[in-house]
Amino acid sequence: MATRELRALVLSHVRFEDLGSLQPRLEERGFAIQTLDAATAEFPLAPEPACDLLIVLGGPIGVYETQAYPFLTGEIDFIRQRVEAGRPTLGICLGAQLMAAALGARVYPGSNGAEIGWLPVEFSGSGQPPDWFTPLIADNLSLFHWHGDTFDLPDGAKPLARTQLYNNQAFMMESFALALQFHPEVTAKGLERWYVGHTVELGKRGISVPELRAAGAEHAPRLEEAAKAFWNSWLDYIL
């Protein structure tokens, strides 16, 4: 009997914030990957694309900016229906914030300022962290962060990670949905597109691109190794 092809649907907000190190992990498993530009997609997606995994990526806008970006309302509704159906879902950065909003939690500008750069995260749940999550909280590992907004923990969600600035950096819903405020998917090479795409924000914040690049050269190789173990373990867990 032929094995059914797995399908991943990716909601993208800016092209340079892509799947990164997650893409080869999906390809190794035989996933067919379909990417939709969320800003120009027709929500509700009809008929709903049949997919085994929904991935919602990052972007430089706020979940609450629905007047400026009306597509967000349809995107949030789509994510809500997906999660309520118990279907495998991953949100990264803006994607995590959209998941939080879809689950009824508040998303808002963080009072401690933006987190941009390389910082470690620590486990914030009770008991022991899930085995698949442990590669991301290893000693001396820094994760890449780029966000100014934060969110409250949705009802029923299990917290997974925090930083010194923000308590809610990751959460899971039962065994099928995962939200990550940080970016385990980035690579040193891929970040070069971020530095160009976010040049205005970096300039306004007085953040040095050469310093970000130097930090990436130091931390990205170890993150890529840890992310490979994380992606493989998490995909085994949800599929």
CATH architecture: 3-Layer(aba) Sandwich
On the 0 to 100 scale, the average pLDDT is 96
Distance between termini?
19 Å
What count of domains describes the coordinates?
1
Order of SSEs: EHEEHEHEEEEEEEEHHH
CATH topology term: Rossmann fold
Secondary structure layout plus pairing:
Layout: E1 7-12, H1 22-28, E2 32-37, E3 53-56, H2 71-84, E4 89-92, H3 94-102, E5 107-109, E6 115-119, E7 122-123, E8 143-147, E9 149-151, E10 158-162, E11 170-173, E12 177-180, H4 188-197, H5 199-205, H6 209-238
Parallel strand pairs: 1-2, 1-3, 3-4, 4-12
Antiparallel strand pairs: 5-9, 6-8, 7-10, 10-11, 11-12
Helix pairs in contact: 2-3, 4-6
Describe this structure in words.
The chain is an alpha/beta fold and 239 residues long. It has one domain (7-238): Class I glutamine amidotransferase (GATase) domain (Rossmann fold), CATH 3.40.50.880. The protein contains 6 helices and 12 strands. The strands form 3 sheets. An 8-stranded mixed sheet has the order 2-1-3-4-12-11-10-7, with helices on one face. Strands 5-9 form a two-stranded antiparallel ribbon. α2 (71-84) packs across α3 (94-102). It is globular, with a radius of gyration of 17 Å. It starts with 6 loop residues before the first strand and ends with a helix.
